[in-house]
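Lecture 7 notes: from sequence to structure.

We start with a single chain of 411 residues. Read the sequence below before looking at the structure.
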Amino acid sequence: MPRLKSLAIIVWLVLLLMFSGYGCSKSPAKKPQPPKKQAVGVSLADLKGANASAIKEALGKKKDNKIKFIYKDAKNDAAQQAMDVQDLIDQKIKILLIEFVETQSAMDLVQKLKGKGIKILALNVLPENVPVDGYIGPDYVRVGQLHGQFILNNMARLSSDLSLVLLEKASPKSQQILDGEARVLSDKVQLQTVDIAADDPTSIASNILNATQQVGKIGAVMTSSPVLTKALLENAIDPTAITLGTGIIKETAEAVKMGVHDGDVDLMPELVGNHASAAVTDLLEADVWHSEIVITSGDYEIPAVIVPVRLITKDNLFLLEQRLGKIKAEPSKESSSGGSQGQSANQSGSGSGGSQGQSKGSGGGTKLIIETTDGKKMELQIDGEIKSVQMEKGQSGEKQGGQEQKQADSQ
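Now the structure, written as tokens:
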């Protein structure tokens, strides 16, 4: 009898365990949920630009399942950027990486972001007297110094002591570039500045053309942005003038390769992206980031990382191939029509099948490049400037119509 009672108790306990859920269950154990990603906003002035693409690519290399980058293209429009920032705020971002389109409205955006507890890192453009949490960008004063030093090293090539500086109107980086140029060239050449509104692409070319035509003979032209450099190269000026740009891209690199553009400063946007990526990680983990220096901007001390810059000429174009790919001596398909061919195209004759072009040499003369209809090329180094070029058929001696070419600015 006692054995039957013990057996009944055991059966009862087994049934109790089964029905109370402590026994085996057919329902699978729940998988742990992945951590929620923290949103980081990225507002760039022109997301389609080559330098912005390099920043985006650098940020994209960060394999972190805890971070979600949300990109916005301001299209060089301050009003569009303001709407983008509001949309990012609505998406509960923790950090904003922003390349300010307009510095005048920067304080309004920063006040709105600070009110939501959002950290702000300025990229490439640091607005004056605005309390951002950090700045990552190039040394623009050094850009100007590189321009100036190149001209000093090539003073023998200057056909005039007038050097024209084309600057983006109302851009803080333009003034810094000019300061660097003035430090090196102030007592060596005559510097003349031209402010050009870069927010209206349709007027940039005409403004540059007017500026270069009004001043007469020009020894050198320097620009403060790739937009201005492209427009300059698309509008033929005296081929003996030294041209120097800022923010080299594929099209201007090709112009350097072809010999119609002397040099362009690489702002190394991939480094801006790499430093921004590291700063985002620091801020999300510890609420501070590892800056290298502190910049005084009005009433505020801004932690910063200053990215090095370098002058690219024909001799060191290979430095860009990892970012831009193979640089050819002719415009790529991405180049705008006319593109950096502007100088050589406007200098060439119109004879059928033949082409003539002038590329800049390192000396004071002019190199004449002739290509025949069967593909043969001949280069001639000529001392001084070419006033005109004539083409004549070998037997008849008859001049081909439209082949005489004169450079108005050499008269």
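The chain has a mean pLDDT of 81. Keep this in mind for problem set 3.
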